[in-house]
TrEMBL record:
GO biological process, one term: proteolysis
Taxonomic superkingdom: Archaea
Native source organism of the sequence: Methanosarcina mazei LYC
Name of the featured protein: WD-40 repeat protein
Organismal lineage: Archaea, Methanobacteriati, Methanobacteriota, Stenosarchaea group, Methanomicrobia
Start and end residues of each Peptidase C14 caspase domain: 1-182
Length: 315
């Protein structure tokens, strides 16, 4: 069982936002199903004032997310964040000056005591990087339980910006969930999401933060594989040993007068591998010339990785 609580709040009485509801709706839609239509997370989406975005209700929903047994419990929040000397806070729509907010430390405590196997927390709010931080003299330390991953839109001292009706961070998160962060098998994990977002934001922009204490990454969403798995499993057939080169000649190239049908089918596999960085031609720039000039191709480091997965029956 995979559960997700997705909250987006725009309707603040003093400083309304514009993109958090849009962000939450998009994220919830992507989490509900994988690209092939198979069910993914059982999502509870909270966006409208009628959904009761007050402090007691939000506390109860977060508690319900983490209190029950589940394979994955994911919490996404887009809204205002606040940093005080006592730590970071998320702010609900009933916030008033000097009113109580929800401490990020409280959410961390619920995650630490959660019965879920994996816990994922994604925060798109100002000062989100203060989540799970404790001061230790002039420095800070992160407090993470086993199998907890945290991705935040910004560092503890930074704001989280909105552009064009979406948060800068979540617009990249959406792209990542749509496939930008997928590996060749179509798996999208917290690690690949962060890598995707990190590479898109420059040194002078808000900086996302990634904190994790996991033994393995679980897929957050899956898209259709870039190369069908049955084709990936043929890698050791073409390369019995990872250091082997596959000898080519003009009979593998479909446009050649010497083309042979079954060899052209093999060459199509090799070209697909090359397009995803698994194979590269030897002493030629393109696979076409490697075939026409009777050269060869070989596995890349990434290709060796997938060769090993197949040989170990992990793919």
């Amino acid at each position: 069982m995979r559960k997700a609580l997705v909250i987006g709040i725009d309707n603040y009485p003093y400083d309304p936002l514009e993109g958090c509801v849009n962000d939450a709706v998009c994220v919830a839609s992507l989490l509900k199903k994988n690209e092939d239509g198979s069910p993914n997370f059982d999502v509870r989406l909270i966006t409208n004032p009628s959904d009761r975005q007050d402090i007691p209700t939000t506390r109860r929903l977060i508690d319900e997310l983490f209190e029950t047994h589940s394979d994955v419990a994911l919490f996404y929040y887009a809204g205002h964040g606040l940093l005080k000397s006592t730590g970071g806070y998320i702010i609900t729509s009933d916030f008033k000056t000097h009113n109580e907010e929800i401490p990020m430390s409280e959410i961390l405590g619920l995650a630490i005591n959660s019965r879920a196997r994996s816990k994922i927390i994604i925060l798109d709010c100002c000062h989100a990087g203060s989540f799970a931080e404790s001061n230790l003299g002039n420095s800070s330390i992160s407090n993470l339980c086993d199998e907890l991953t945290v991705i935040t839109a910004s560092r503890d001292i930074e704001s989280a910006d909105e552009i064009g009706g979406h948060g800068v961070f979540t617009s990249l998160l959406i792209d990542a969930l749509q496939g930008g962060a997928a590996d060749i098998r179509g798996h999208i994990t917290a690690g690949s999401i962060y890598a995707y977002i990190d590479s898109a934001l420059g040194a002078w922009a808000q900086r996302p933060i990634f904190k994790t204490n996991v033994s393995r990454f679980v897929p957050i969403r899956s898209i259709n594989p870039k190369i069908p798995l049955e084709k990936l499993r043929r890698i050791p057939k073409y390369f019995p040993k990872p250091e082997n080169e596959f000898k080519l000649d003009p009979s593998y190239e479909p446009t050649s007068e010497k083309a042979i049908a079954f060899k052209c089918e093999i060459f199509k596999d090799l070209q697909d591998f090359e397009s995803e960085g698994l194979v590269k031609p030897v002493d030629e720039e393109h696979m076409y010339y490697a075939a026409m000039n009777s050269k060869s191709c070989k596995l890349t480091a990434l290709g060796y990785h997938y060769w090993r997965l197949v040989k170990q029956n992990k793919l």
